[in-house]
Specification:
This protein is of the alpha+beta class. The protein is built from nine helices and twelve strands.
Length: 439
């Protein structure tokens, strides 16, 4: 666990481990394909992989070598090329980007200097250095881009480039389909997690009415029932914007699905396979998740409801870091870190369930919530407004919990993700809820 009271050597080791883990993953994602695949844009929604690689190095240089160490820029002429706000993804292939070999060399040189810096850093004195925050922020940033690059690999058309073992088989889940979460207050967000990002802060009291929430994420099999019942052709289940969007784009199933005779198939990292009915449904938009919930006579949980189900311990009354407690994630708890390239069957990871008995709240699939992405009461920008503040508003919906593509450093019970409600290329799924007035 990251703890403000940890000594400098423990913090240094944690920072080194998280940075090294992220870089090993980045190397895998950018070395498993040839140079043309690195420089190509596989979808207008995504950057070329080589842009992500150099951007990772540039952000590391800016925050650790310049902001923390006060050093001069190594290559100031490239800052604008790798500024995510200056150039939308659709334009990035036309920029004079560093070639793959040059991008690798730049990122490697930055990392070498950062490791030297880490050896002598005192983990106090400024907000950036306190408890190693800046190093944790950069490790999270790199892992977030690794997930983005994994999405690009899924969108890429071509032979399989990545492999990983499947999750362990799980017996069919026979537990209750939903769990009652009692009403009352709980502590939402955090003021004590040292590497938490600004939108997770501050901790605050949140009052939630009683509700029922699905024990597991909605599965492919359950979602197919919605399709088979004509859900995509029935305007009753859709918001006006959602209905207009699916009609305009001819959407009739999750992204990467197609029907072959009497069965549904999907494309997953270059392999076509039968859609497994017991896995959480993946690659659905907020509009699709919301429509399914309406069809099922339910609704999406609010962000506060999701977090209470994931963190609230009714015995102690406190909010834990993760559903299983305060310990860092282990393989027995959740499907994280690209250890597998698919969600585990619904009902897996009993050791990762919350005190209320809700499973797979961390890992497997990002879960859409009903909530817009908004600041918490008392929110303060740190260390830059472009991380969170510029995205606040009704245009973005909140996702929680992480996916199989998320590393543990960038995933905790307070971690918040957000995206447009039309997005489907992300590793997104959902679970549903219903109110329980009088419970």
């Amino acid at each position: 666990m990251t703890d403000p009271a940890l000594d400098a050597e423990t913090l240094r080791e944690r920072a080194l481990t998280t940075l090294t883990t992220a870089r090993a993953r980045t190397t895998l994602l950018t070395s498993c394909v040839d140079e043309p695949d690195l420089t190509a844009q596989h979808s207008p929604l995504m950057s070329p992989l080589v842009w992500d690689l150099a951007h990772i190095g540039n952000q590391e240089e800016q925050w650790l070598l310049r902001a923390v160490a006060g050093r001069d820029a190594m290559r100031p002429e490239i800052d604008g090329l790798y500024d995510a706000f200056e150039h939308p993804r659709s334009e990035r292939p036309s920029l004079p980007l560093l070639a793959p070999a040059e991008a690798r060399a730049y990122a490697s040189e930055v990392r070498g200097r950062v490791l030297d810096l880490l050896e002598g850093t005192a983990f106090h004195g400024t907000r950036l250095t306190e408890a190693g925050f800046a190093f944790g922020m950069i490790a999270q940033h790199e892992q977030q881009h690794d997930e983005t690059m994994l999405i690009t690999h899924q969108l890429r058309i071509g032979p399989q480039a990545l492999t990983a073992p499947d999750p362990d088989p799980a017996p069919p889940f026979t537990g209750p389909s939903e769990v009652l979460v009692p009403g009352g207050p709980f502590t939402m967000g955090t003021s004590t997690e040292p590497w938490a990002l600004d939108n997770e802060r501050p901790a605050h009291r949140c009052e939630v009415a009683p509700y029922w929430i699905d024990t597991t994420p909605v599965t492919n099999g359950a979602y197919q029932a919605f399709i088979d019942d004509g859900g995509y052709g029935d305007e009753r289940w859709w918001t006006p914007d959602g209905w207009a969007h699916i009609r305009q784009h001819g959407i009739h199933a999750p992204l990467f699905w197609h029907r072959d005779g009497g069965q549904w198939l999907r494309r997953r990292f270059g392999v076509t396979e039968v859609v497994p009915p017991d896995e959480p449904v993946l690659h659905v938009s907020w509009f699709e998740a919301d429509a399914y919930a309406r069809w099922a006579g339910r609704r999406l949980p609010t962000e506060a409801e999701w977090e209470k189900a994931a963190r609230h311990d009714p015995v102690s009354g406190r909010s834990t870091r993760y559903p299983w407690g305060d310990a860092d994630p282990a393989p027995r708890h959740a499907n994280l870190g690209q250890r597998h390239l698919r969600p585990a069957p619904a009902g897996s990871y009993p050791e990762g369930e919350s005190p209320l008995g809700v499973r797979q709240l961390i890992g497997d699939v990002w879960e859409w919530t009903a909530s817009d992405f908004l600041p918490y009461p008392g929110f303060q920008v740190f260390p830059y407004k472009e991380y969170s503040e510029v995205f606040f508003g009704p245009e973005y919906k909140v996702l929680r919990g992480g996916s199989f593509a998320v590393d543990e450093v960038a995933c905790r019970g307070t971690f918040r993700n957000w995206d447009y409600p039309i997005r489907r290329q992300i590793f997104s799924g959902f679970r549903t809820a219903r109110s329980a007035e009088g419970a």
